[in-house]
Amino acid sequence: MVQIESLEKYFGEDKERVHVLKGISLNIPEGSLYTFLGPSGCGKTTTLRCVAGLERPERGKIAIDGNPVFASGERVYVPTNKRPIGMVFQSYAIWPHMTVFQNVAYPLTIHRRPKSEIKKRVEDVLRIVGLHGLEDRPAPKLSGGQQQRVAFARALVNEPKVLLLDEPLSNLDAKLRVQMRFEIKALQRRINITTIFVTHDQSEALAISDQIAVMHAGKLIEVGTPHQLYSRPTRKFTATFLGLTNLIEGKVIEMGGDSKPGRIETKKGILSFIPATSLGRNQAAVISIRPEHIPVHKEKPQGLDNVVEGTVKEAIFMGDAYHCQIAVGDMLLAVHTHPFLNMSPGEKVYLYLDPQSCNGLPAEPRIRKEWMKP
Ligand SMILES: Nc1ncnc2c1ncn2[C@@H]1O[C@H](COP(=O)(O)OP(=O)(O)O)[C@@H](O)[C@H]1O
Ligand SMILES: [Mg+2]
């Protein structure tokens, strides 16, 4: 539904000129909720604004539903109001002097649609977002969640093919933010609209997305489902940005095969691991293992590989888990254990680094071309 090819964008002039998008390429499948995730300043909003036609890139191509809306070579540039998109911004930009109806009808009134059509379309879309019956309420009399829904209704009233959402939840308080995740997801599923969702919040991205594009410093790092990116990221950046992880450095001594684990030499001895991407012999690599994937034993487990000995440095009771720091030689591992397993500082423990949970990644990341495909 949305195709972006080799997008390049600069801001500023001469010495001040900064390269903000460095060749972004991606394909967004029809009907999916597709998230741009990355730290602040990595270029998420700029990419979204290029899709909306609010920024003009220097190079590249953008097509929506097969129709080019931007192509640097062919000098194609379709203006914002001619692109089949609806947008919701961080500040909802709802008119305070208007009612719910007037706010939602606004995009239709400026296009001078007939009154009867406006009435019908606004009623339909208010029903979709669950604001039916609140037509005459003045905007200032709405709660945060209701304002959000007005913004969505207004973005949808023109029946766009693509919905663009730029950090739409960041102005809400923590509880409402979590609740609105479910609401957005349910709404998106119900009307099955292709949606681009921008956020820097990794848990929001995991919760809501069909696919996530991880971005960093103007580049696309990798694309995958929340499950793929959390459990088998192929890049170190993804592993550390999405959730908490432990990284153990080493050198590959055996690459492993289809079902056979690879082997890596680390300061903690030789460990078995599953390669997330192709790794060569002698290549510098890291093992990434999540804190919740490390079982803790108080006695040394027999007959298992990948067991390391450590000392509990800190154990914080979190209610549903203990969050521990465990010293293994000069390395500190984050480990989450069951709340019934009493953990006290100074205690000696054994950690089972299950090879299936040890994700082998290149220490020096390389870009893989396959990520460009949907
Ligand atoms: N209008 C602008 N003029 C100059 N620099 C800009 C402008 N808009 C964004 N930038 C810069 O471009 C980079 C990417 O910004 P942005 O796309 O807003 O990042 P994100 O949305 O991921 O936080 C940042 O370094 C930002 O400072
Ligand atoms: Mg932004």
Task: Explain how this protein is built.
The chain has helices spanning 44-52, 100-109, 115-129, 144-156, 174-191, 202-208, 226-231, 236-241, and strands spanning 2-11, 18-28, 33-37, 59-64, 67-71, 76-77, 85-88, 162-166, 194-199, 211-216, 219-224, 246-254, 262-266, 269-275, 284-289, 296-297, 307-317, 322-328, 331-337, 348-352, 359-362. The protein has 8 helices and 21 strands. Helices cover 22% and strands 34% of the residues. The protein is of the alpha+beta class and 374 residues long. The chain has 2 domains: 2-231, Rossmann fold; 244-362, RNA polymerase II/Efflux pump adaptor protein, barrel-sandwich hybrid domain (OB fold (Dihydrolipoamide Acetyltransferase, E2P), Beta Barrel), CATH 2.40.50.100. Residues 44-45 line the site of magnesium ion. Adenosine-5'-diphosphate binds next to α1.
